[in-house]
Amino acid sequence: MQIEIRFFASLREALGQTSLSWRTEAATVGALRDELTARGGVWAEALARGRAVRAALDQAMVGDEAALRDGAEVAFFPPVTGG
Amino acid sequence: MVAPEAAAGAQRRASVSIRHEDFDLSAEVAALRAGIPAVGAVCAFVGTVRDRNEGASVATMELEHYPGMTEKSIEAMIEQAFARFDILGARVVHRVGLLQPQDQIVLVAVSSMHRGESFQACEFLMDYLKTQAPFWKKEVTPEGARWVDARVSDDAALARWGIASGNA
After folding, report:
1. Which pTM value belongs to this model?
2. How far, in Å, CA of B14 to CA of B55, rounded?
3. CA nearest A12 in B: which residue?
4. Closest to A80 (Cβ–Cβ): which among B47, B106, B150?
5. Is the ipTM of this complex over 0.90?
6. Engineered SS bond to B158: which of B14, B21, B90, B127, CB 3.0-4.6 Å?
7. Which of B94, B131, B134 is closest, CB to CB, to A77?
8. Which residues of A touch B167 (CB under 8 A)?
9. Considering only alpha carbons, which residue of chain B is nearest residue A63?
10. Alpha-carbon distances of B159 from A79, B44, B118, B140, rounded to whole Å
11. B11 confidence band (pLDDT: 50, 70, 90)
């Protein structure tokens, strides 16, 4: 399936991009993160397990178990610091 | 704008604004309670840019957010506040972009018939916003620019309301 991925803040800077159109076989947000990590280089470093990375699916905070669907908008970002 | 769900006889006012421009506390409070004579209390919190953080002086601060999700997430928080507390109105303004020390960053204002509900709902909304709304602060210090770290104490603050948060 085809999805749109967005990156914010320090993660956006580390990866050097704000968004990515991505064809994936991953069934969940967690599996997608692992798929991106497997690209190696800055991807492996910025998204590695153990790093504080939060995710949103269709603009709502979710955990690793959230199921992807075709056309979904997924975002990865560091812990939020507003207010 | 949060969809108005008229609870029996209650007038309800709720809105969110994410923007670069500053806000006027007096004007915001006046708008929140205008034409709603049942209001007997307004509690407003204003967050501002400190000139120091984590032992360093802060020259400027830049706020990034996730357009679309930011508004949706705060509207959902306001829905929760209306469900939990007997309040009449809520207004949230959050600035983004480049800010200087002493600038206003955020306003959370809540109106109700009696003060207790406004005090509680205001703190609830701030605790929620700190850990669940997609904003990120980057500050410029003499050592260079750095992203601000999330605080575990902010997750603990939200936990007081019975809501688990694993942000920091």
Report:
1. 0.93
2. 38
3. B64
4. B150
5. yes
6. B127
7. B134
8. 54, 79-80
9. B166
10. 16, 22, 19, 31
11. low
